[in-house]
Amino acid sequence: MIAMQDGSMEALLPAELLAFLPCATPMGWIEAALANQTLLLIDHAQCEKKAASTAMSLMYRYVDRPLLLIKMSQLAREELLHFEQVVKLMEERGIPYRHLSASRYADGLRQHVKRDDPQRLVDMLIVGAFIEARSCERFARLIPHLDIELAKFYRSLVKSEGRHYEDYLMLAQRFADGPIESRIAFFADRERELIETPDETFRFHSGLPAVA
């Protein structure tokens, strides 16, 4: 369970989401994000685009699962809208969009995904739930420290990203052959490691900034 740093976290995020995450974002990452807002926004845009791509990939791979097709189609459209919104906000601030190398976070989780279905699909969905839940938590942690415009935008994203976390977790439970608690616990441990251990590169989902 995450220890609350202030009332804003509790007001913005449901208890279930906070309980799902194994740890809070370190204050060191918050400080790095505030000091690197250009990189934060560029990588945020990139993350939205990747999230849409992941949803589309699942749609193409699992064409025989109508519920998954519907949920992933909705998610992809929403993530692309968010991408457009971030790019527009960047343009208004004179920040050009450019490619950034990926953080270790998503690959660090996905390297543990099983190769064969149905466990592969379940693992992919659990990983998606962690990515979306962590995004929510980071938006909420940043909001009290941001300018009014960016804080308002991130506040609007908290609700939608929270729905995405819920959808991924619901689908994982729906398509599993049995209980998924042990796999959630496994990925929670991996997620904690990625968030709390030193990370050389700052990104939206990076870990604790390494001390030079």
Task: Give an overview of the whole structure.
This protein is mainly α. It has one domain: Ferritin, core subunit, four-helix bundle (Ferritin, Up-down Bundle). Helix content is 69%, strand content 2%. The chain has helices spanning 7-12, 15-20, 27-35, 37-61, 66-92, 105-110, 119-142, 148-175, 181-196, and strands spanning 198-199, 208-209. It has a two-stranded parallel ribbon. Helix 4 (37-61) runs antiparallel to helix 5 (66-92) and helix 7 packs across helix 9. It is globular and about 45 Å long. It starts with 6 loop residues before the first helix and ends with a strand. The model is unreliable at 1-7 (pLDDT under 50). It comes from Modicisalibacter zincidurans.
